[in-house]
Amino acid sequence: MNTAWPSVSVIIAARPEQTEIRAVHAAQRLDYPRDRLEILVARGRQPSVQRNAALRVARGDLVYFLDDDSEPLPGNLQRAVTAFARDPQLQVIGGPNLCPEDAPEQEQVFAVVLSSWLAFGPSRARYAPVGPPRYTSEKTLILCNLVARRQTLLDLGGFDETLYPNEENALLDAIQRRGGRLWYDPDFLVYRRPRPDLRRFARMLLTYGRGRAEQFRRLPTAGSALNFVPPLFVLYLGVLLAGAPLGFWSAGGWGRWATGPLGLYAVLLLGHAIQLWRRHPWPRVWRAALLIVAAHCLYGAGFWRGCFTPLRPPGSKTTREVIVESVPLENAEVGA
């Protein structure tokens, strides 16, 4: 057995009935010693619960979390192991998930929105390679492409099962509070398609906003300050709409004061669209620009909802039931 390489457990959350799991086939192609690698599929209906269940039975020194549709580059694990060996204080490494070039046009538009600085600020690094490799915060890391030291996660109790999504963000914050370091590598890539249609994309944005608000309620941090911009924007729009029928904004200076931020927002959006036009065809750009506005509104609305949702772990037997399967490394088909 080659003891020079740390052992690695790949953990993939999947639905109970799912038969085709893209991430499994991609994980079988990882360029890593076979005697130091295992692939675990955790089947269930609540990803935080599923990942915790797999984490408890995993044997690896490191765990590599993939979503069921993540397709990592074959060299990802070797790249991660090199980073961990270089810095003993490093606890987590991650990188972006990119939309495949052969994805349908609608998904390409969604990818432009997700990688937009105006739409998602520093978190756009989750969807596009941004800057050099560097120490980072939870803002740039995403759970569909994340390697961590298993013992560190166990010591912290795993993922908070009252949070979904944003369970990884809360855990990464906790790691940093203990002095652990997080690393962002723009070349540590997985390929993963965005949501396939507008309805599911909108629901995802609402869920992201709700998850961030729930995370902030559970664990307030200064790093979440930027996430208050979309809900405040939604509140601002609501006040404008409510005051318009009453004529509040039609009188002189009050009207200019009230609508000034909206004008600034329009200028920023136009400037950003022109910037995007340098890299994308115009039909894709104007659709993305409209969706950036929708993203701010949907995320903000989801955030307000998350301010009032109950924070409790999943209680139903169906939600907590998890089956963890160990998958053969070569020539394996994953069945139900």
From TrEMBL:
SUPFAM superfamilies: Nucleotide-diphospho-sugar transferases (SSF53448). It comes from Limisphaera ngatamarikiensis. It comes from the Bacteria. The chain crosses the membrane at residues 225-248, 254-273, 285-304. This is Glycosyltransferase. GO terms for molecular function: glycosyltransferase activity. Gene3D superfamilies: Spore Coat Polysaccharide Biosynthesis Protein SpsA, Chain A. InterPro entries: Glyco_trans_2-like, Nucleotide-diphossugar_trans. It holds the Pfam family Glycos_transf_2. Residues 42-104 form the Glycosyltransferase 2-like domain. Belongs to the glycosyltransferase 2 family. Keywords: Glycosyltransferase, Membrane, Transferase, Transmembrane, Transmembrane helix.
